[in-house]
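Collaborator request, handled under Task 6.
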Amino acid sequence: YIADLFGQRYSGAIHGKALTAWAASAVCGPMGLAYLRSQSYKSATHDLLSAIEDEAAFESAFGCTLGDHDKIAALIDAKTLSISRLMEFVPDGTVDPTPFLYDS
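Structure tokens returned to the collaborator:
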């Protein structure tokens, strides 16, 4: 197909450049999407943490206060503190952000 469009003389070079671009996009594309999802996840957990009204229940469940940002970050990294767990502590009627994580 490339030879039909551009001729035999340049088909090798064009094909090599196309394969290089496809390989780069195969690596960078998923990495970019994973980064965007992680940023959406962090934003959603931050929003849910700010919506918690019963700080005593949160502290008894996770062993840290809402102001202890280092401990909260460690709990999130360990998957102990997740969006589904945070939904237990936010007021009724709060929208679960899980379906919208890929909308960024």
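The cover message to the collaborator said: "The mean pLDDT is 92. The radius of gyration is 23 Å. Please let us know whether this matches your experimental observations."
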